[in-house]
Amino acid sequence: DANGISKGSAHVFEFDQGSTYCTGFWNSFVSMRMTGRLLASENRLSVLGSGFVPGQVALLLAATDSGYVVSPGGSLGSFCLGGQLARVSPGVADASGDLFFTVNTQAVPTNPAVAILPGETWYFQIWYRDQLFGASALFSEAIQVDFE
What we know:
By secondary structure, the protein is an all-beta fold. Helix content is 0%, strand content 49%. The protein contains no helices and nine strands. The N and C termini lie far apart (39 Å).
């Protein structure tokens, strides 16, 4: 304005990232959504799991390749990961049944830990125990993410 004072606002939007490529357990109420930036070097990727029973324990898994195994080890649903696997982050669902995971793209806990590089595709899936099915292990849908 005329007094040299600038006014305005900035809006930051976090869009859903990745695409679902594999379904988990057919009767699961759990879904996952990834948000953040696909620039691997920015280290800004989050996963929201929703539809959990409050207090539900779950584990975010990541892999360097896709896979497909039906009911591995007696679990319910399809395990959709392959290649080098990582247990990214455990968590407990909050009172509304949501569970937030943060992915450290600079040190994915494979053995040994690796950084996600531009041009790589990674795959993510949530493993959890569901009390409704006799404490069975279940798998969520799986999401493919292409990093820039």
